[in-house]
Design brief:
It is a single chain. The chain is α/β, with parallel strands linked by helices. It has one domain: 4-Layer Sandwich (Metallo-beta-lactamase, Chain A), CATH 3.60.15. The strands form three sheets. The protein has a seven-stranded mixed β-sheet with strand order 7-5-4-3-2-1-17. α5 packs across α6. The relative contact order is 0.17. The mean pLDDT is 98.
Length: 264
């Protein structure tokens, strides 16, 4: 399995663009999958540079209804004539950041026939399944970091019901793809216990000193207790990644734009 990072906050290549967002091109034995589309057309420009033909994508997945993951949906639809985009049924809710700024995706996208809304669990094909886990117990506490969702004409603490995860089972291995892990990376790993996990941890609001450092240290130790190798970026935070890396060693790697991972 190969995963190409088409968009992430950073890049180490002069010919590759970056922006605050995430987009992954996943090649399994039988399918080509696009997971998230960043906030603009950066993912498509990088795909072209990397020799990735987005018209070949069999289906696409939106991890959750935030602009930095679904902003490129219209660009993708213009480049690919066959693939449906699977989004959670709650993805078109009204989502806001801690400053009260709208950070959701365009609601008009819901009217496009190729944008398909799904529930808590949905099989895309053999060995490839979407899960939202909204009915599962969160073993570890979740922090919203000021994010909110508007329901019944008022903003409440974000419940992240719109977030979903992609589980791929191939050659006796499991690979879990998560956009931002808003429901809590620790609970997510506990639910699936995958061999490999690729995605953001949403630690970037934590500092790397004092009480926050103690939290990160504890989180790293919990992550290491599972039989998982981790590839992360985006909302994990660069400083936070370096802090975690000191503890987690070769069990943790960063994935800037332009990275090509050969998982197995």
């Amino acid at each position: 399995m190969k995963i190409s990072v088409l968009c992430e906050n950073t890049t180490e290549r002069s010919d590759i663009l970056s922006e605050h967002g995430l987009s992954l091109y996943i090649e399994t034995k039988n399918k080509k999958i696009l997971f998230d589309m960043g906030q603009s057309d950066v993912f498509a420009k990088n795909a072209d540079t990397m020799g990735t033909d987005l018209s070949d994508v069999d289906f696409a997945v939106l991890s959750h209804g935030h602009y930095d993951h679904g902003g490129g949906i219209e660009t993708f639809l213009s480049l690919n004539e066959k693939a449906d985009i699977y989004v959670n049924e709650n993805a078109f809710g009204e989502h806001y950041n801690a400053d009260g700024k709208y950070i959701g995706i365009k609601k008009k996208l819901k009217e496009i026939p190729r944008v398909v809304t799904v529930g808590d669990e949905y099989s895309l094909c053999e060995g490839v399944t979407l899960f939202s886990c909204n009915d599962r117990e969160r073993r570890y506490p979740t922090e919203a970091y000021g994010l909110s969702v508007r329901k019944n004409h008022e903003n409440i603490v974000e419940d992240f019901l719109h977030e979903q995860y992609l589980l791929i089972e191939e050659d006796g291995k499991t690979v879990l793809i998560s956009g931002c892990s808003h429901k809590g990376i620790l609970s997510i790993v506990d639910w699936f216990r995958p061999d490999f996990l690729v995605g953001g941890f949403h630690f970037m609001k934590l500092g790397v000193a004092g009480d926050d450092a103690d939290k990160l240290r504890k989180y790293a130790e919990i992550l290491l207790s599972y039989p998982t190798s981790y590839y992360t970026g985006h909302c994990t935070g660069e400083e936070q990644f370096l802090f975690l890396k000191e503890i987690m060693g070769d069990r943790l790697a960063y994935i800037p734009s332009g990275t090509v991972l050969k998982i197995f």
